[in-house]
Amino acid sequence: MGIKGLTKLLADNAPKAMKEQKFESFFGRKIAIDASMSIYQFLIVVGRSGTEMLTNEAGEVTSHLQGMFSRTIRLLEAGLKPVYVFDGKPPDLKKQELAKRFSRRADATEDLTEALETGNKEEIEKFSKRTVKVTKQHNEDCKKLLRLMGVPVIEAPSEAEAQCAALCKSGKVYAVASEDMDSLTFGAPKFLRHLMDPSSRKIPVMEFDITKILEELNLTMDQFIDLCILSGCDYCDSIRGIGGQTALKLIRQHGSIENILENINRERYQIPDDWPYQEARRLFKEPQVFSDDEQLDIKWSAPDEEGLITFLVNENGFNSDRVTKAIEKIKTAKNKSSQGRLESFFKPVVSSSIPIKRKETEDKAAKETTNKKSKAGGGSKRKK
Amino acid sequence: MLELRLVQGSLLKKVLEAIKDLVNDANFDCSATGFSLQAMDSSHVALVALLLRSEGFEHYRCDRNISMGMNLNNMSKMLKCAGNDDIITIKADDGSDTVTFMFESPTQDKIADFEMKLMDIDSEHLGIPEAEYHAIVRMPSSEFQRICKDLSSIGDTVVISVTKEGVKFSTRGDIGTANIVCRQNTTVDKPEEATVIEMNEPVSLTFALRYMNSFTKATPLSNTVTISLSSELPVVVEYKIAEMGYIRFYLAPKIEEDEDETKPQA
What we know:
The structure holds 2 protein chains of 2 kinds.
Chain A: H1 6-13, E1 18-21, E2 30-34, H2 35-45, H3 63-77, E3 81-86, H4 94-118, H5 121-130, H6 136-149, E4 153-155, H7 160-169, E5 175-177, H8 182-185, E6 190-193, E7 205-209, H9 210-217, H10 221-231, H11 244-254, H12 257-263, H13 277-285, H14 305-315, H15 320-335, E8 338-339, E9 347-349, E10 354-355, H16 360-373
Parallel strand pairs in A: 2-3, 2-5, 3-4, 5-6
Antiparallel strand pairs in A: 1-7, 6-7
Chain B: E1 2-6, H1 10-19, E2 25-30, E3 34-40, E4 46-53, E5 59-62, E6 66-71, H2 72-79, E7 87-92, E8 98-104, E9 111-117, E10 125-127, E11 135-140, H3 141-152, E12 157-163, E13 166-172, E14 177-182, E15 196-199, E16 203-208, H4 209-215, E17 224-229, E18 235-241, E19 245-251, E20 254-255, H5 258-262
Antiparallel strand pairs in B: 1-5, 1-7, 2-3, 2-6, 3-4, 4-19, 7-8, 8-9, 11-15, 11-17, 12-13, 12-16, 13-14, 17-18, 18-19
């Protein structure tokens, strides 16, 4: 999913573009969350053991509701303002990828039946996770829950990540939270990973800054999109034998996929016959998103207490006490005054001092120019 | 080349104790004017600005404007190794990636060199405009420290209001409420014991006590503290460092959010 190996590629080549942040430091921030990704995580993680999942009396799975409810409350308590964005219709190009996922799920279902027969617990765990699919019903349940909680929901026309990125670009939210790295390819200025991880895992939130990524990689946004397509995205195949590191080198050398195709050794690298990279690029650059204010009704309101109790306790078998307590939490979180930030009062200025220690970036830039001169195909490790 | 010799070495120790809990890493800037630092806490709610003017050093050599990124916790560890009466000299060579702290005992019979690795810190520098404040309160720093400590046992936030009556610090928590009023009082034996309130306009602002408490770690640096308040600005809590400069803490106020909810987000 997302862009293959991008996290590692960035960690190696643009370490300054990623910063570990405390979950709490996002208080007061509006954050667009890729809902489908979160629901998928909840279905895998929340209340599962073997093939057993949390269910209501009717036997319908409720893991997603449990997860969505508790994590969203955690966000609200920390003073964050989440906006959940749901997937719309997938673009045609993604159908291939989706078909692949479908067949992988089918395989996993077979494996699971086999594992159940042999009774191998580890295998059961592994394959049952792989059979998880987010259904329309899961999505609808979560939307209903969020609306009752007073949290805004946006239904994207197409890809949720693209819509999240658009919200962030237009300044309607501070950042996009997802586990899917293609949020960056869609140009989300700030992108957060691990925001929705359970607090028990104690993983700090990783904040990516796209302008810093481009600066550190020394690429334009268009080149970055090409890099992502070459590394492997959801929309088209990648060239065999080209991974992230090689893709970065090629983009730096030739500037665009077109130029790479002209200069690349076609014997060594097989270019797929049907390779709609231009179409993929278009999807990243001009994705189908809403931009009207009317379509984007982002408002946080008071929770509907009765509605929540009917939905969660009566219809889905949640513990009544716990739900009442949780509603109290939402209400107190709403009434808290929020902490201001210094940036809203003082504006950044450029400091005139020069670091006594020579900056690594300068070193790196110097190394890169020497690197460019040397022929491609050499070791990817930079030498002094 | 940089060489700063500070006879009153304990001062630097106290400065570090005052800021190291608020900020993890920071760039120290050196220029002909002095040795300074500006840094924010990780959530960008509070800012510390430090200035030690060059005149305050016994010897001050700084050939060009440079900055040195340091981990304040590590720096504090090193400075803790200096005696309270020691003379501290800060030294760094151009292009070097270390800074040296030299501690000399007053009798010159012991000299210690501590070398610390520098860091490459990407920090934002904020421009802080000179402002007219609605109200300025000067009071004994120990008194302010006591108030912050007492209130934080009751609540999380403090409302500071200045009126003609005086300055009021109040809080509210699960167990109850607390209000402390300090009136202007200049009939004291020592000038540093006075409470002076200058008010152009009444003002009332809410702040997180957690940060206020952290600022009061600078209390050993000065007998008095000056609190400057304006309704549109962060509060400034300033501790003057005798004959050398100051340490100033800026804290963004808490905001009521209702208007934000209903107004369309631009």
